[in-house]
Task: structure prediction
Amino acid sequence: MGKLKKEEVITNLNHNVHLNHEELKMHKLAALFLFTSQGITMIHEGQEFARSKVIEPTEFVEETEAGTIDHNSYNKDNNTNYLNFQHAELNRELVDYYKGLIKLRKTHDVFSKADYNNYSFQNFKKNEFALAYNIKHKNKNYYVAFNANPSISQEVELPSGWWEILADENSVGSEKVKSINGTITLNPSTGIVLKQK
Result:
């Protein structure tokens, strides 16, 4: 995302941890991909608030390492590896999105138990980063669409009928269920999950 240059030293940890708008969109999209995929969902600790492991300066750390991010911190101290739940508050919107996705997956077993033969995929010729699919499961129809392109929007022609929005770029499982039909536009780096009414 270009927020940090390689080997850049982080001096303001809270500023580094707090996601900007584009980073938040990418994290939500990645989570949406994960939670609508078949199989067991694995979340790394702190993933739900975009945890990064910044090496804290201590007497056991090389001066050149202090303040950099360590993606393999098995040999670092507690200050580098511990979970800072204040960072979860800084990225509360992402935490809430993960909570919604967990509930979505528990409520709709289509995302863990659907038969591969019940999938119908759709590609978009002018956008190699867009993908959609229809799933039939237990006499219900679901439609999932992603636009992972960070630069352009994607128009999507929905299958016929009316569709309830289960998840979009803003929230999952909103109290006010909206229904849509026809053509929708996915903003850059967003996705949507629909269930046919």
Summary: The chain has two domains: 13-107, 115-196.
